[in-house]
Amino acid sequence: MRHTSPPVRGRYWPAGRRVFTRPRPQADISLPVFSDLRAAWTGRIELQANALVPLNVYLSDDAGPLADKVARYGGSLGAVVRLSGLPNHPVLPQHDAALTRLFRLAAERALDVDLHVDETDDPDSRMLREVARVALRERFTGRIVCSHCCSLALQTDEYIDATLNDLLAAGIDIVSLPTVNMYLQSRQAGRTPRWRGVTLLHEMKSRGLRVAVAGDNCRDPFHAYGDHDMLDTFTQAVRILQLDHPFADWLTTATRAPAEIMRLDNDDSIGALAVGGRADLILVRARTYSELLSRHQFDRIVLRMGRAIDTTLPDYRLLDDMN
C-alpha cells in the first residue's frame, strides 16, 4: 500500500529548499487497529505491518518515535526511497543520511526493513544500489526486502552486474509486482507502452538472490483492478516475466520464497508441502502447468489446517457504504 506524502513542514537544508516532512499521527491510528485485526484473523491469515512512509521522515525528529511504535506492534520499518522536493539522481547526501538513520533505527530495535525502490522508468534512478551500499556499510543484519526495482531493467549491463553483486552481498530480497508495475510503468495517454515495467527477476534468481512475486495495490488509484488472488498473481507473472519453458521452480516465488521473506519458514509446512504439516494449500483440477495457467480455477478447494474453507467471493455491494 502506498501513502501520499504529508504536508511539508519542519526543517530546511542550507539551500533553502524545504524537503523534510513530518508524518501525520497516522501511526497512532493505524497500528492499534491493525493489531486488533491481526488478532481477530489469527490462524486464518498472516498479517504483518510495515511503516511505509516518505524517506524524508528519517531526516526529522519523528523518525525515532515512529520506529518505537513500529517495534511495539511487531512491524517492520520502511520507506518509499525518494525524497519529496529533491530529484532521485544524482544520489545526494540527504539520501545517504536518511537511509543511514533508517537502518540504524531498525538495528537498534531489531526490526526488519521493507522498502519501495525505483518504481520508475527513469534509468538514472539508482536508489536500489544505494540501499545495498548503506546496508553493507552499516553491517545491517536484519532482513531487507526491496520491491518494484523497475528502473534496473533500463540500466546498462555493467551497472546491473555491479548492482546484483551488491544486493547479494547485502542479503537483500526482491519482490516484483508484475501486474501493477506493467499497469503503471510507461503509461501515457494515447501512447502504447514500450516496456513491461518489471525488474530483472531472472538475472536476480540466477545470481542467488531470493525473489518473490506479489500483488501491490488493488482497485485503487494505483491499480484499478485485482482481488488479492495469489494464484492469479503467479499466473500473470508467468506471462509477464516469462517464467516458463522451463517452469523450473518458479512456483516458489509465490509460495516458499514469500514465507521465507516473512520469516514464516520456521514452520516447514508454510509455503510448502510436508509430512505432518499444517495442510494449508489450494487444490485445483489442473493436471499440468498449461491447464493450471489457462483457466482461473474458480472451482478450487482451499484447505486451511486441513479443512476446506468457504471460497464464495464477497459481493461488491458490501463496499457500497465506503464509496
Automatic annotation (TrEMBL):
Keywords: Hydrolase. GO terms for molecular function: cytosine deaminase activity; isoguanine deaminase activity; pterin deaminase activity. Its EC number is 3.5.4.11. Residues 84-285 form the Amidohydrolase domain. GO terms for biological process: cytosine catabolic process. This is Pterin deaminase.
